[in-house]
Structure formats: C-alpha cells, structure tokens
Specification:
Low-confidence stretches: 72-84
Mean pLDDT: 81
Order of helices and strands: HEHEHHHHHHHH
Radius of gyration: 24 Å
Number of strands: 2
Largest sheet: 2 strands, parallel
Length: 294
C-alpha cells in the first residue's frame, strides 16, 4: 500500500470505533485534496453528533465552531506575519539540529567517514608527499561529497510521518550538520594527504562556497525518493551525477591555489552553481514533495 492508502485505511477505522473523542496528530499527511475534504466532512459529522476532535494539523479543515491553539512562539502578541513565519522557521531549524545531533542524523557520521577516507588513502597508495600532494584536492573534495551523501536518505525520514516538510530548512540543517563541519576539519585532514600549505586557504574557501550546493542538491534528490522503499540506492544514482560540476570546479580551485595559478574563474563558477541551487531548488523540492505525498 502507498502512504496515502495506509493513511486512508487508518482514518476509516475512526467512525467504526464509535469513540466520543478523536485525538490525531497530522491526520491529513499523504492525503490528496479530495480526501482531505472528505476527512473534514467526517470530522464535522462527528462534531455534530456530540463528539470531540483534537487535531494537530497545518491544514485548515474549515470546521465550524472550532478553537485553535497556536503554539508558535510570540504568536499571541505579534501581528506581523513575516515575523511569525521567521520564528516558526527558526524553531524548526533548531529542532532539526537537535535531532541531527541526538538521533544520529549524520552529524558524526559524515565526519567519521571523512576522517577514515583521509586516513586510508595514504595507507593504500603510499605516504609519499610527491604522490599524495597532487591528488589531495580531488581526494578531499571526493570525501566531502560522499560524506554529504551518507545522510541524505534521513533528511525527510522523520518528517514524512508528522508532515513538517520545509525544504529550505532541511537543506540548511543538512549543511550545518555536514558541510560546515567538513569544511572546518578539512585543513587538518589535508595534512594527512600532504596538501600544500598554499592550498589550505583555498580548500576552506572552496568547501565553504561549494558544500551548500551539495546539501541543496541532495535535499532535492531526497524529495524525489521520499516514501520509497529502498530509496537510498536510487537517491545515490540521482544525486551523484548532479554533484559532478561542483566536484570538478571545487577541486580545480584547490589545485590552482596549490600551484599559484588564478582561481577566479573556477571560484566564480562554483559560486554560481551554489547560488543557482539555493535560488531554484527549494521550489523544485517543494513540488517533488507535493507529488510524492499524493
């Protein structure tokens, strides 16, 4: 059964139980517009027959004589809609950061993978500086790319159940818990690969500019495969080709920095890719989520 079919079966049990109180958390997740309207009518009939319904939902069901409790911080005293939306987004971002750190959402997993890769490469090819130095930019960027890929399948895993799917917040959380820590630790790992000291600053700059694109592209790929069984493999196949331009230009920035060549062109292209991803992919991600949740 699909997610929508499972939800309809679960909701169909409500009238059969003949319980006076219905207590539900995000009951409309995975339902299309027609079934949401049908559910609203079922709740209205339950209320008219003397029943009570307590719902936690982001959708206005159009029920008469209802009381709404808005738990958004400062909502009772602020009338500025933009401010309320900002507070809600901040609260969601902080919640996702806590989940990523506590529930193994990729915060330590990516760093551990990055460290293991940087340790194993010298053991595999030999600890010669003349051999490792030229390939260090590509190895470090490849490690960052694969480390970002590890936690993508968990971006929407928990939120598929409760319905709080906000694409921009998810991408930003992924970058803060994966891309940013990788950028911070990269100079230390560069020492293991005999990265030239002249390239260390360019490595940090390239990762700082390029890793947001990895997170936004990964979030888009996760939205395409959300709710699918064994979607992790499909996610990798979808996202890896999209990562290639960022990998190429990011490694090229570090390579040119190590050789003392101008870095403006690959750095500008890398920044253009990131800005394009941030500007366009939230809309594509939201559209993909709407299609999959139906």
């Amino acid at each position: 059964l699909s997610a929508g079919q499972k939800r309809r079966v679960a909701l169909a049990r409500l009238p059969l139980t003949a319980r006076p109180v219905w207590l539900m958390d995000e009951p409309t997740v995975s339902l299309d517009a027609a079934n949401v309207a049908l559910f609203g009518r079922a709740v209205a009939v339950h209320l008219q027959t003397g029943g009570c319904a307590i719902l936690a939902t982001h959708i206005d069901l159009g029920l008469p004589d209802t009381r709404t409790l808005d738990v958004t911080r400062f909502a009772a005293t602020q009338t500025d809609d933009t401010f309320r939306r900002g507070v809600g987004m901040t609260a969601l971002l902080l919640r996702d950061l806590r989940l990523a750190i506590r529930a193994g959402g990729g915060f330590g997993l990516g760093l551990a993978f990055f460290l293991i890769l940087a340790t194993l490469v010298p053991l595999a090819v030999g600890p010669q500086p003349t051999l490792l130095g030229p390939i260090a930019p590509g190895i470090l960027w490849l490690g960052a790319l694969l480390a970002c890929l590890l936690s993508l399948d968990r971006i929407f895993a928990l939120d598929l159940e409760d319905g709080s799917l906000v694409a921009t917040v998810k991408a930003l959380t992924h970058w803060l818990t994966t891309g940013l820590p990788l950028t911070i630790i990269a100079p230390a790992l560069g020492l293991l690969l005999f990265l030239p000291s002249s390239a260390t600053l360019w490595l940090v700059i390239a990762l700082l500019i390029g890793t947001p694109a990895l997170s936004w592209l990964g979030t888009f790929g996760a939205a395409l495969t959300v709710g699918l069984k064994r979607g992790s493999l499909l996610l990798s196949l979808l996202v890896l080709p999209l990562y290639i331009p960022t990998l190429v230009f990011g490694a090229e920035v570090v390579r040119r920095g190590a050789e003392g060549l101008p870095t403006a062109t690959p750095l500008a292209l890398l920044g253009g890719i990131t800005l394009g991803c941030i500007a366009l992919l939230p809309f594509a991600t939201a559209a993909a989520l709407r299609v999959n949740l139906r």
